[in-house]
Amino acid sequence: MSLVKTAMGKVALIIGVTGQDGSFLSDLLIEKGYEVHGVLRRASTFNTERIDHIYLDSLVRDMKQERHLFLHPGDVTDSSSMLRIIQSVQPDEIYNLAGMSNTRFSFHVPEYTAEVDALGPMRVLEAIRILGLQEKTKVYQASTSELFGDTPIFPQNENTPFNPCSPHAIAKQFGFCITKNYRESYKIFAVNGILFNHESERRGENFVSRKITLSAARIAQGKQEKLYLGNLNAERDWGYAKDYVECMWRMLQHNKPEDFVIATGVSHSVRELCKLAFEEAGIDLEFEGDGMDEVGIDVKTGRILIEVDPMYFRPTDVQKLVGSPMKAKNILGWNPDKTSFQQLVHIMVKNDMELVKNGKK
Ligand code: NAP
Ligand code: F7E
């Protein structure tokens, strides 16, 4: 990587370090010279796969060499662990990325979703206030385009009214508001990044982008028969997660605490994503039929490769989101064109083709 080290001596705490964004942010901050701390929650299986390349590295490194990533057991639903970790780390920057981030699953666990996505951010902010770190510690809160919900306004920007339509989005709205409130009430440098969907080769496999790229790779290599999806008409503004974590960092380096939309400004449907991903995997796909009967067909063989399964429908779904990156472009120097939708799908399919080829997926 060509990033210049600019932050020697700074300490960051990433809550949600094991997730897609937490892992890319760790890479970025370490490259910039930060000492990075992360919160590791308990799981029944190992959950450090996305950070093993940094974490295991530090464990096996010669003890005389410097370590850059330190993990602390804790959970954002547990105030005492937040207090303990923040007190011992004394971070200059906290990135609260911890989230029950699966919109569909939030309908099944609405109360738990509120614990993590609504009260979680409040516990972090309260810990800063109780520990008297208001002047030292800056906070980034992972807010989301889901806040706009089923909006009639296109594109969405920082002034677009919220209309959240899932337990996940409603809980995130509390997180957004409490962050703004603590900024105004206690002068904490606390900001919301209203990030539109961002994907990568590290994206969880139950999000639609990764489900599609992995299935395309498996179907192309004869390891899977069909792909079952829900709402093919849904449109999202999909960007590359690696680019988006840089904006999180930029928001905390800005001279005043402000909220920003981060988006590419272009949206595509789930159907378009399928066509492109399968094309990257060497399959020319066309869609036929309507509604529940719509199918994706391999043009060359006539085989049905994609079908609609109502199991993946949501009680309410956001039909279309597209963000305006103008404020971030003008103030943070954000380049919304850095990785195009086509490049993103290429990166993801290439990665998944390799994983399938090597028997890893
Ligand atoms: P992700 O891959 O699902 O990662 C979520 C992280 O939160 C994981 O490290 C997870 O730990 C951790 N976590 C979950 N519950 C926790 C708890 N109770 N205590 C502590 N940690 C907990 O999500 P992501 O894509 O990286 O997104 C990061 C954040 O940005 C999320 O809050 C998400 O809602 C928000 N966001 C994401 C997008 C997007 O398109 N990716 C867009 C806007 C906003 P485990 O690894 O143990 O599960
Ligand atoms: O769904 C449709 C689905 O689950 C996108 C989270 O990171 O981004 C993410 O939330 C669209 C929806 O992401 C399937 O109905 C069709 O309309 O990939 P997704 P999401 O719900 O937009 C936002 C910004 C966040 O903040 C969240 O934390 O795709 N869709 N068929 C499907 N979705 C899934 N998962 N699976 C399907 O089979």
What is the strand and helix layout of this fold?
Layout: E1 11-15, H1 20-31, E2 35-40, H2 52-60, E3 69-73, H3 79-89, E4 93-96, H4 103-106, H5 110-130, E5 138-144, H6 167-186, E6 190-195, E7 198-199, H7 208-220, E8 227-229, E9 235-236, E10 239-240, H8 241-253, E11 260-262, E12 268-269, H9 270-280, E13 285-288, E14 295-298, E15 304-308, H10 326-332, H11 341-357
Parallel strand pairs: 1-2, 1-4, 2-3, 4-5, 5-6, 6-11, 7-10, 8-15
Antiparallel strand pairs: 9-12, 13-14, 14-15
Helix pairs in contact: 1-8, 3-5, 5-6, 7-9, 7-11, 9-11
The chain binds NADP nicotinamide-adenine-dinucleotide phosphate and ligand F7E.
The site of NADP nicotinamide-adenine-dinucleotide phosphate (NAP) has 26 residues, from helix 1 and strand 5.
List its traits.
single chain; 361 residues; alpha/beta; seven-stranded parallel sheet; 11 helices; 15 strands; binds NADP nicotinamide-adenine-dinucleotide phosphate; binds ligand F7E
Describe this structure in words.
With 361 residues, the chain is of the alpha/beta class. It has eleven helices and 15 strands. It has a seven-stranded parallel beta sheet with strand order 3-2-1-4-5-6-11, sandwiched between helices. A four-stranded mixed beta sheet has the order 8-15-14-13, covered by helices on one side. Helix 3 packs parallel to helix 5. The protein is globular, with a radius of gyration of 21 Å. Mean pLDDT is 95; it is low at 1-6.
